[in-house]
Amino acid sequence: MKLSVVIVNYNVCYFLEQALLSVRRAVEKLGQPVEVFVVDNNSVDGSVAMVRARFGEVILIENHDNPGFSKANNQALRLATGEYQLLLNPDTVVEEDTFRACCEFMDQHPNAGGLGVKMLDGQGKFLPESKRGLPTPWVAFYKIFGLARLFPKSRRFGRYHLGFLDKDQSHEIEVLSGAFMLMRRTTLSQVGLLDEDYFMYGEDIDLSYRITRGGWKNYYFPGTRIIHYKGESTKRTSVNYVFVFYRAMVIFARKHFAPERAGTFSVLINVAIWLRAGLAVAQRLLTQAAPVLLDAGLIYGGVYFLKTYWELNHKYVPTAYPPQFMLVAVPAYLLIWLTSAYFSGAYDEPTKTSRIVRGIFLGTVLISAISNFFDAWRFSKALIVLGGVWAVAALVSRRLVVHFLR
Fold first, then answer.
1. Based on the domain organization, do 227 and 355 belong to the same domain?
2. Cα 77 to Cα 73: distance, rounded to the nearest angstrom
């Protein structure tokens, strides 16, 4: 058996189908015996039925729970008999010549224990994790705190993704990607299978490191490409991904680094976890608040213009309205207008102009009514009405601009 392909699936039926179709074409191009395993981790989206109906050549392993990525891969690897053994994500598509080109490369490089290929995302952009360096404490520090992103080509700061290496040339690398990880069977027999302490993430780094420690080489090979719809097979969310991934890095550090280095690494990782999680939450809140804040800014600017125009052309006194009008009264107007608009459904999808008009109208009536009870804050009914008209125009116009820019 020349090649064994192992795919672990969890609730990505559509992507798995595309992956298996591409694998079938690549097997035909290789022209040598290949066995394909699919290990399903208790999916509920019809993945198992689809494999049975459409891919009779696949060896299907059904789990009745989700034991994690490492354990599921190992289930198939213990049964695999191929000279070369490939771990492949279900959210990937391989080229027709991928298996042939990779097997030829391995045949020509007897010191190769592992091989990774050039990966592209769904839009055809190169994925930097196609080639990676070992996440030592300093390399992790540069990545966690953004220096790797700022200086991707630097030999010092860019070591995590090896950005200083030409992505169109073959290179010896330290870490392979678990999305496409081709290994020699004799190598796995020597260094062992995936470490099952890792539920998800980090297991590819651990195995890559053990391959090099065993005297083998890991190679990056751009002679063929795959598409990796990054993250589809894990349904990663920003906060959850940060916690799971960096916790996996702590496991790796404790296993392979000296105690003092592992301690430093652990501190860095924990700082990164809370920093990244905090930033993710703040970004989410800002994203949700941004439309309201933008509407508030547009309305405030418009009322300021109206106030200035009214002073010069109707009051004929440049300072007819005291400073507290813009500092206190107008922010109160904004709060009432936008609150009324919110509860009228102005921020619900799909956008409807009638909801905006209703919300601002009710807010304007409320502002006018409240101003009747406070003489000190009774400024101009005309500005309140004109402000309400402007608020409707501003909210509708912003939504039209957003719609046409999408």
1. no
2. 6
